[in-house]
Amino acid sequence: MKNIMKFFLEPIRFLGSRGVSDRIVKFFDRHPWLIYVVALFISLGAIFIMYVAPVLGL
Amino acid sequence: MPDWTANLTWWTLLDFYLIFIVSVFVLKFILHNKRILSMFMFYFVILGILWISTFLDLKLSSYIYQQAPIVFLVFIFVVGAPDFRLTLESLWKETVKSGIVNMGSERTKAEIIKAAMYLSKQNIGGLITIEKHNNLDQYAQRAITLNSEVSHELLINVFTPNTPMHDGAVIVRGDRVVCAGAYFVLSSNDNFEKTTGSRHRAALGISEITDSLTIVISEETGSISLAINGVMTKMKDENTLNEYLSLFMK
């Protein structure tokens, strides 16, 4: 109950105190090659938005 | 159905590649430092709120949050400036390497060991940084230039308490003492004890961002430690110190 109240009253602080950044850094430390996969998806997304989406009328 | 490949040419591949290398660099940059990642996560939360308020057409919220991303981005760069500098330096470290490097003679090594052992016995604090590939000029420029031959007498004299140069680090390049009284950025690594002194933190700090080796002599215990690649190792005796230095200076 206290956590739910906390989430509604201070959502940004609530998310910040979950140690999410800690977990993300540790995860990418264990799997460094995933950085390249994420970068690949970002690049593909950017190419899609710039080159493909206009043709498809999106 | 329109031909979705209409805009795609061979140049798109180059465009893709350029976006890819920047994405890798930015991701590595953000993920390299927990504090930077936290700040960017906060930024993405703000972007999320903006997106939701725009999507639901919440006039007041979207008006307020529209200004927030730019303001907050500037805020991140101002507040996080020291972290950005550290991260850039350590990312750059792996790429800035010159081929030929003079690591000093056997005599220099012996003089450094002699000085370290003396300082340790007398419980005098000391910080001796030996440069390798990464140039330490930016620290030397703000210190007191010596440019003299390495000798144990000089090193002992520099670290003698209550003298003007005893507080900072000595930087050794090849067979020369470049400067004394150099100050490094302290390590903020959370894995070390909170009680780790500023001299040890300075040694760790410089070892995290350069490939130098730093000898730290504790003022309290007289113990000798080596900091290299962000790792601090306590030396058991003179022989261990000699072995480590021989490996580093070969």
Can you tell me about this structure?
The complex is a heterodimer of chains A (58) and B (250). Chain A has 58 residues and is mainly alpha-helical. Chain A has one domain (2-56). Chain A is built from 4 helices and no strands. Chain A starts with a helix and ends with a helix. The model of chain A has no long low-confidence stretch (mean pLDDT 82). Chain B is α+β, with helices and mostly antiparallel strands. Chain B has 2 domains: 10-93, no CATH class; 106-249, YojJ-like (1, CATH 3.40.1700.10. Helices cover 52% and strands 15% of the residues of chain B. Chain B is built from 9 helices and 7 strands. Chain B has a 7-stranded mixed β-sheet, sandwiched between helices. In chain B, helix 2 runs antiparallel to helix 3, helix 5 (106-121) packs parallel to helix 7 and helix 5 (106-121) runs antiparallel to helix 9. At the A-B interface, helix 2, helix 3 and helix 4 of A face helix 1 and helix 2 of B. Chain A: The chain crosses the membrane at residues 33-53. Chain A: Keywords: Membrane, Transmembrane, Transmembrane helix.
What descriptors fit this protein?
heterodimer; A: 58 residues; mainly alpha; 4 helices; 0% strand; B: 250 residues; alpha+beta; YojJ-like (1; 2 domains; 7-stranded mixed beta sheet; 9 helices; 7 strands; 52% helix; elongated
Low-confidence stretches of chain A: none
Oligomeric grouping of the chains: heterodimer
Give me the Rg of chain A, rounded.
18 Å
Number of strands of chain A: 0
Question: Order of strands across the widest beta sheet of chain B?
Answer: 2-4-3-1-5-6-7
In whole angstroms, how far apart are the ends of chain B? 67 Å
In what range is the share of β-strand residues of chain B? 5-15%
* Strand portion of chain A: under 5%
Largest interface: A-B, 26 and 22 residues
Radius of gyration of chain B over all CA atoms, rounded:
25 Å
CATH superfamily of the largest domain in chain B: DNA integrity scanning protein, DisA, N-terminal domain
Query: Average pLDDT value of chain B?
Result: 85
Which stretches of chain B are low in confidence, meaning pLDDT under 50 for 5 or more residues running?
Answer: none
Helix content of chain A: over 70%
Largest pleated sheet of chain B:
7 strands, mixed
Shape of chain B: elongated
Overall shape of chain A: it is flat
CATH class annotation of the largest domain in chain B: Alpha Beta
Briefly note the structural class of the backbone of chain A. Answer: mainly alpha
State mean pLDDT of chain A (0 to 100 scale): 82
